[in-house]
From TrEMBL:
This is Amine oxidase domain-containing protein. InterPro entries: Amino_oxidase (IPR002937), FAD/NAD-bd_sf (IPR036188), Flavin_monoamine_oxidase (IPR050281). PANTHER family: AMINE OXIDASE, FLAVIN MONOAMINE OXIDASE. GO terms for molecular function: L-amino-acid oxidase activity. Pfam families: Amino_oxidase.
Length: 599
């Protein structure tokens, strides 16, 4: 893998990053205007702390963000900074870095969570972790990779199947089948062309003058879902056509998400590549769970089975400034721990179950925690006696259908080998919720129905006899991320208006002491890189609050180079987020004191 050496300028000027920067700056300006605190007054009101002292950090969650935050702290090599990681799950670390193994066979597994990594510049932070921190490099012998090595991931091959409207075609046949190869009677252009009709003009305008054009787009479309945008912008598409486009393009009800989220997603992969080349994708031999285990081996002080149930703020004596944070676990008041800073990497669906009444969070932050939209995802892996799909030409890639399975992911690992495991169904949004409703435990009637549905669908899509497929079937493992108590959803997928109104709230440390990380607090939702970027941001926040940033900046400079969300040249934006977060902590505490006096 040949990395581009000088990428900072390119990384920090991508569409998504300029959007996030603009949102935060607009939010900061609105806050100052609404509260009468110009930035200069804020600096005087909340000076950086000057006294060097031991700093104890509580990290909530041992997923990618939590363990990466710990690794960064360790990289500072300073006895002044210590940490504890509190993980609610008693059995494993990694969060959504989760691999299920059917046996000890080298290829008898599938990734329940994150499973593929595109080698494009804004993902370089992930590859920096893999290569630099964990020693996970591209396999020297791709035919015989070792556990933890990176191997080629096949996103699509010509022989992958598509079954819609009762008709099965290969990718190659679809490509040559005109605009409506599945006879819907609704498509006079391809789905790709129909989406390009809507977005190409916007992208050209943004390329010419991002700031002015983006402000126009936000004003016009920020409150719109993708579905509403397609129905109201010129040329307006009918609801039937929109649903058809959605069916081929994504999961059912995905288009209820923010239009700007969809626009950013469509632009993420438009990074220039040399003519004739495609984006390279990789997966981890042994599964992404190897990443989690190697991160675990790098850090210390992970406490398993510690469900955080209460967080409280402690104030400077005689002031309204946050001084430290108390954390209780497992509903036990005697378990209280005191930290100088707390980094929550918990998904917001889990965080909102914590008693934060003694933190007095702002209304806007409470709304963000409660309302930020997450999508569901359900995966079902199956083990067979042989890799029967390879006999049908399916050697990696994805087959798709409008049936219950929706997406079938053929393993890019173990090709021509003996272990025969594949993802027979990978679904999102409403598709995932409906299929996930059948994930009720082995031996239950619901899961017997689940297995029957998926095997029947597989047989139809591949044109094989159901009795032959059942003879191959050995075992299965289903996972519904919505039903997982440690995630309460699969990944963030913001709704209309949420980026502009709620994203700035979760990137401000409340009281300068309670910090939020995780992919939902990044602009890169659903990607490991979002967890990594957000973790690095929170460590920099802590260094800024403690007036240690200039001291440790040289140690973090190389890591920051591959993080497109942090630009050392614009560190003042992050400083302003901290000042506002500290000021909000004071304001809410004053309000509570006034309420107590009047009552």
């Amino acid at each position: 893998m040949d990395r581009i050496d000088d990428i900072s300028e390119q990384l920090h000027n991508t569409w998504r990053i300029q959007y996030a920067r603009q949102l935060i700056e607009n939010s900061q300006a609105a806050w100052h205007k609404g509260h009468g605190y110009p930035p200069s007054a804020m600096k005087a009101a909340a000076p950086a702390e000057k006294v060097r002292r031991p700093i104890k950090i509580g990290i909530l969650g041992a997923g990618a963000a939590g363990m990466y935050a710990a690794m960064i702290i360790d990289s500072l090599k300073s006895p002044d900074f210590t940490y504890e990681i509190l993980e609610a799950n008693p059995e494993r670390v990694g969060g959504r870095l989760y691999t299920h193994h059917f046996s000890d066979g080298p290829n008898d597994y599938f990734d329940v969570g994150a499973m593929r990594y595109p080698y494009i510049p804004f993902m370089y932070h992930t590859f920096y972790l893999l290569e630099h921190d964990l020693g996970m490099t591209e396999a020297e012998d791709p035919m015989n990779p070792r556990e933890g090595e990176l191997i080629k991931y096949f996103m699509s091959i010509d022989k992958n199947l598509n079954r819609y409207n009762g008709k099965t075609l290969t990718n190659e046949q679809v490509k040559n089948g005109g605009p409506d190869p599945f006879d819907t009677g609704l498509l006079d252009e391809t789905v790709e062309q129909l989406l390009n009709n809507k977005f190409s003009g916007m992208k050209e305008q943004l390329a010419n003058n991002f700031q002015d054009e983006w402000n126009k787009l936000v004003g016009l479309y920020d409150a719109l879902s993708m579905r509403t945008f397609l129905a109201t912008s010129s040329p307006a598409y009918s609801q039937k056509l929109i649903t058809t486009i959605e069916t081929f393009d994504s999961g059912t009800t995905f288009y209820d998400s923010a239009m700007l989220e969809m626009l950013m997603e469509s632009m993420d992969f438009e990074w220039p590549v040399p003519p004739g080349e495609e984006v390279k994708w990789y997966c981890v031999q042994g599964g992404s769970g190897v990443i989690a285990e190697r991160m675990k081996a790098k850090v210390k002080n992970i406490e398993m089975g510690k469900e955080v149930t209460k967080i409280s703020a402690n104030l400077v004596s005689g002031h309204h400034e946050w001084e430290s944070v108390d954390v209780e676990v497992n509903h036990d008041p005697t378990s209280k721990r005191r930290y100088d800073h707390v980094i929550s990497t918990m998904p917001f669906g889990c965080f909102r179950n914590i008693d934060t009444s003694e933190c007095h969070l702002t209304w806007d932050l409470e709304v963000a925690i409660r309302c930020l939209k997450y999508s569901n995802s359900t995966k079902v892996g199956m083990k067979f006696k042989s890799r029967w799909w390879e006999k049908h030409g399916q050697r990696g890639g994805v087959s798709k259908t409008d049936g219950p399975t929706r997406c079938i992911v053929y393993p890019s690992y173990g090709i021509d080998g003996e272990d025969a495991t594949m993802i027979v169904s990978y679904t999102w949004a409403q598709d995932a919720t409906r299929l996930g409703s059948l994930c009720r435990g082995k031996g239950t009637p619901a899961e017997e129905t689940l297995v029957d549905i998926l095997l029947d669908d597989l047989a139809v899509i591949h044109g094989i006899k159901i009795e032959d497929l059942r003879a191959e079937f050995v075992d299965y493992f289903p996972w519904n991320w919505d039903d997982n108590p440690y995630s309460a959803g699969a990944f963030a997928l913001f709704g209309p208006g949420q980026f502009s109104t709620l994203y700035p709230e979760v990137t401000q440390p409340m009281g300068g002491r309670l910090h939020f990380a995780g992919e939902a607090t990044s602009v890169h939702h659903a990607w490991v890189v979002g967890a990594l970027n957000s973790a690095l941001r929170t460590i920099i926040e802590i260094l800024l609050v403690e007036d240690r940033w200039e001291e440790f900046k040289p140690l973090l400079k190389e890591r920051i180079k591959y993080d497109d969300e942090i630009d050392i040249r614009n560190i003042d934006i992050l400083e302003e987020q901290i000042r506002i977060g500290r000021q909000k902590g004071k304001i809410t505490q004053k309000r509570i004191d006034m309420l107590n006096v009047t009552s």
